[in-house]
């Protein structure tokens, strides 16, 4: 086999492998190391994406994430600690890059990272966050998970 043929086959294999894995041809690079909250938001996005692909209804509380804690440890810890706030009951939508679905708890007052409904994360100022659309059908994790924790505590 000639070397040019070998090079073409290698390029074809690499291209097919990249396409099969869903690689973005233009990756985004961070200028700084991500914070725990950013990693948690990205994992929440991956969890919502996986839930949607699996044909499951939108997760209603942290209980829906609990069985997947090992697969999404940053998301689970961030939600448990209250560092990340989620609108539960909101489906992932790859076409909606405008609606907030989760955010760093500091975002409403001083800005921070925000997870959009399409799974992308964006850094927003407090003013941008306040102006961004929020899902009407979602319930904030601070409400849902707090009620769930009270019920669990009262049963003990």
List key phrases describing it.
156 residues, 5-stranded antiparallel β-sheet, 48% helix
Explain the overall architecture.
This protein is α+β, with helices and mostly antiparallel strands. The protein is 48% helix and 13% strand. It is built from seven helices and five strands; from the N terminus they run H-H-H-H-E-E-H-E-E-H-E-H. It has helices at residues 3-21, 36-53, 62-65, 73-81, 107-110, 126-131, 141-155; strands spanning 84-88, 100-104, 112-116, 121-124, 139-140. The protein has a five-stranded antiparallel β-sheet. Helix 2 crosses helix 4 (73-81). The longest helix is centred in the first third of the chain and has 19 residues, at 3-21. Residues 6-27 have low confidence and may be disordered.
């Amino acid at each position: 086999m000639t070397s040019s043929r070998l090079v073409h086959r290698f390029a074809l294999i690499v291209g097919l492998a990249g396409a099969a894995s869903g690689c973005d041809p233009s990756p985004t690079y961070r200028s700084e190391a991500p914070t725990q909250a950013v990693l948690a938001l990205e994992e929440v996005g991956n969890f919502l994406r996986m839930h949607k692909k699996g044909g499951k209804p939108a997760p209603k509380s942290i209980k829906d994430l609990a069985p997947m804690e090992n697969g999404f440890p940053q998301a689970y810890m961030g939600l448990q600690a209250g560092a990340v706030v989620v609108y539960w009951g909101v489906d992932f939508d790859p076409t909606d890059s405008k609606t907030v679905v989760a955010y760093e708890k500091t975002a409403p007052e001083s800005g921070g990272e925000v997870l959009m409904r399409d799974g992308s994360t964006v850094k927003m100022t407090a003013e941008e966050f306040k102006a961004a659309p929020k899902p009407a059908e979602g319930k904030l994790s601070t409400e849902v998970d707090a009620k769930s924790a009270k019920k669990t505590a009262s049963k003990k």
